[in-house]
Amino acid sequence: MQTTHGIGGVEPAVHVRGLVKRYGDLTAVDGIDLDITPGETFGFLGPNGAGKSTTISILCTLARPTEGAARVAGHDVVTERDEVRRHIGLVFQDTTLDQYLTAERNLRFHAELYGVPKDVLDARLRKVLEMVGLWERRSSKVQNFSGGMKRRLEIARGLLHSPRVLFLDEPTVGLDPQTRLSIWGYIDELRQSENITIFLTTHYMDEAENCDRIAIMDAGRVIALDTPVGLKASIGTDTIRLRTADDLAAAGLLRDRFGLEPTADPEGLTVNVADGEAFVPTLVTGLGLAVTSISVSRPTLDDVFLSYTGRTIRDAETGPGMVNPFAQSRR
Amino acid sequence: MTTTTPPPSEAPEAADRPVVPVLVAHAGLRRDLQAVKVVMHRELIRFAQDRLRFLSALVQPVLFLFVLGTGLSSLTDRSTGDVDLQTFMYPGIMATSTMFTAVFAAVSIVWDREFGFLREMLVAPVRRSSIILGKALGGALVATLQSVVILLLAPVVGVSMTPVLALIILGEVFLLSFTLTSLGLVVVARIQQIQTVMGIMQMVVLPLSFLSGALYPVTDLPSWLTFLVKINPVTYAVNPVRTAAFSRVDASPAALDALNPPLTWWGWEVPILLQLGLVAVLGVVFLRVAVRQFKTVE
């Protein structure tokens, strides 16, 4: 476990120890430890109700922890609330824009609330609005904006005061695939140009892949934390699917010659091996049967989630009374 | 805001990049005052954009004065002496319609909550009290601006307005609006839905205006009513406005005295400044309660 100054002597952008949040009988966050390096893009992955948003609320000083401690940009979230707020930018799941005001007016109010110096404001305003492609639309009222434009405007506003840590709570939920892609474009641009730490929550597996590191959350706990590659490696095996002239015979050969446990279905055979790509030549030459097709797939984050929680994120989402967010986002 | 080194592909090495300074001023009194100004400014912009709201707020006082006032005056000719009923009602109506605007300014914070902007304000590195104070002052300012239009009706109802009198009345109206917006903020602090709030506000505003002496003189009332009128804070704002307006009404002293009787506590005439002071103190108390409420809710 790392101490406050653990990573190469640099203070973590986010430092969390033993964080617990209870609402009555419900334990929303159940003992979390985290250290996020400055400049890192860190993803919280988990189904709705896993405790992601509660953790973010605590880190943003919007909720008080029941137990434990958290520091953001070197400041305690309970005792140095205003210092934390000075150093963070926030983009919430639900819009927090004034719909009746123009995009530029929304940003200017934000700048005044945060006390952005007047001499740098105009340049900064232009920079963030251009980044999200809304400079031309700055004089339009927000109520005329599409969902994607509003989200982009909120990202611009969250960056206006040059925060050290940008919190994005489900930044792409409910947006069409194209807008999701462009929002990830801004996030990439940001981490290249501003040395900003990005802390985001998502329940989209494909988006979590873009993070430097991912914490998988379930039922208030972090059950796995690593790079996307590391997480996939942790569950070990690649999957090889093959079809042969005689699947039944091939299954027997796989068992006898390679000591594998193939599973058969009408589509062919499936075996799990540690390094699939390296194994393919051995398999094809060693099998002694004509192989008609073969494919190797690496584990996905879905597989990772499944192996850690015993269910897929979809199952976790579509529990009683839950709406499947994947179904929603396709519309 | 620019980096000199090429961005590393792996973030854990990113600490080498130059740190961009945060563009946020340190917390402090100046920041808080700035926040008060921002919130007020927003109220004014919203008011200026909403012409319909401005017009609709005029309908009520005009109805009261010229429809109800004219209609009822056929009943009351004898009792008001040589003063028109409209003249008598004018200061009270000014106060009442201000009350509505002021309280509805507080309601806007429920809209802000519903549409999320409240959150944007509450997460800023400023004191929560400065956001609430900005809201109260903004609401009071909007209500006062609206009463300027009612002020222009003064000559029609027989009050000869002077610049000084206008300033006095506007000052008193501002104080009343501030206190009522603050009261409104206390009431709405825990309310999440706009539908709930409208009904509750009617329940608050109507009794306060009916029991304030805005629509009838507070002499010779049954003792239960006298009691309610005298514990109603709005009474202590309506009375100064009427006293100011009646200083410029041309009528016999007897009639003026009957229609604008001095406000007394157990026979002691309460000075106007004390009345206004009471309203101001109460406004500050309401504001503090509202701040505490918002602290526990959000």
Short description:
The complex is a heterodimer of chains A (331) and B (298). With 331 residues, chain A is α/β, with parallel strands linked by helices.
What does this structure look like?
The complex is a heterodimer of chains A (331) and B (298). With 331 residues, chain A is an alpha/beta fold. Chain A is 38% helix and 25% strand. Chain A has helices at 52-59, 81-87, 103-114, 118-131, 147-159, 177-193, 205-208, 228-234, 247-258, 276-287, 301-309, 313-317, 325-330, and strands at 14-23, 26-36, 41-45, 67-72, 75-76, 88-91, 165-169, 197-202, 213-218, 221-226, 238-244, 263-265, 268-273, 291-297. In chain A, the strands form three sheets. Chain A has a six-stranded mixed β-sheet with strand order 6-7-8-3-9-10, sandwiched between helices. Chain A has a four-stranded antiparallel β-sheet with strand order 2-1-4-5, covered by helices on one side. In chain A, strands 12-13-11-14 form a four-stranded antiparallel β-sheet. Chain A is elongated, with a radius of gyration of 24 Å. Mean pLDDT of chain A is 84; it is low at 1-7 and 320-331. Chain B is mainly α and 298 residues long. Chain B is built from eleven helices and two strands; from the N terminus they run ααααααααααββα. Chain B has a two-stranded antiparallel sheet with strand order 1-2. The two termini of chain B are 34 Å apart. At the A-B interface, α2, α3, α4 and α6 of A face α1 and α4 of B.
Please describe the topology of this protein.
The complex is a heterodimer of chains A (331) and B (298).
Chain A: E1 14-23, E2 26-36, E3 41-45, H1 52-59, E4 67-72, E5 75-76, H2 81-87, E6 88-91, H3 103-114, H4 118-131, H5 147-159, E7 165-169, H6 177-193, E8 197-202, H7 205-208, E9 213-218, E10 221-226, H8 228-234, E11 238-244, H9 247-258, E12 263-265, E13 268-273, H10 276-287, E14 291-297, H11 301-309, H12 313-317, H13 325-330
Parallel strand pairs in A: 3-8, 3-9, 6-7, 7-8
Antiparallel strand pairs in A: 1-2, 1-4, 4-5, 9-10, 11-13, 11-14, 12-13
Helix pairs in contact in A: 4-5
Chain B: H1 29-49, H2 51-76, H3 85-114, H4 117-122, H5 128-151, H6 163-188, H7 194-210, H8 223-231, H9 235-246, H10 253-259, E1 264-265, E2 268-269, H11 272-297
Antiparallel strand pairs in B: 1-2
Helix pairs in contact in B: 1-5, 2-3, 3-5, 3-6, 3-7, 3-9, 5-6, 5-11, 6-9, 6-11, 9-11
